[in-house]
Every structure is written in structure tokens, then in C-alpha cells.
Write a structure and sequence with these properties.
Largest sheet: none
Helix content: over 70%
Radius of gyration: 13 Å
Strand content: under 5%
Low-confidence stretches: none
Number of domains: 1
Distance between the termini: 40 Å
Structural class: mainly alpha
Mean pLDDT: 85
Number of helices: 3
Length: 84
């Protein structure tokens, strides 16, 4: 993976984590936390969506949408487990 790919990966993770934090109220983890949440969200979406037969498409915008949906799923799970 080149430095450009890594930088895009981190930017997509940060955007997705930030958007997920806005969607799921009460969660803001700062820049590093948002990147981690976005990357984990992308992994969740990359694993879950093909099994459900769900595909958005290709490109950076689709990657941000996929990662954001996965990050929202992650934050909702964290919120539910925190209440328990």
C-alpha cells in the first residue's frame, strides 16, 4: 500500500467516523477515535454487506457511505452494550 492509498484510507475513516458520530448522538471520539471508528466501520460493512447482497458501488463516495453505515452499526452496538 502506497502512502497515497494510506492517506486516502485514513481520510475516509475520519470522515466516516465523524459522520457516524453526528448520526448517533452522544458519540464524539476526537480525530484519532473517529478514524478508528470509521476504519472498523468499513471492515464491518465490508464483511456484512456482501452477505446481505447489498452493494452501493465503487469509488470514494461509496467507500465513505459504506464505512459510515458500518460505523453507525458499531456505535449503536456500543451504545446498547453501554446501557446493559
Amino acid at each position: 500500500m502506497g502512502i497515497e492509498s494510506l492517506l486516502i484510507f485514513l481520510i475516509i475513516g475520519a470522515i466516516a467516523g465523524w459522520l457516524a458520530g453526528l448520526i448517533v448522538s452522544g458519540f464524539g471520539f476526537g480525530l484519532i477515535g473517529n478514524i478508528v471508528v470509521g476504519i472498523i466501520g468499513a471492515l464491518i460493512a465490508g464483511w456484512l454487506f456482501p452477505r446481505l447482497g447489498f452493494a452501493i458501488g465503487g469509488g470514494i463516495l461509496a467507500a465513505i457511505i459504506n464505512a459510515t453505515i458500518g460505523a453507525v452499526i458499531l456505535l449503536v452496538l456500543v451504545k446498547v452494550l453501554k446501557r446493559a
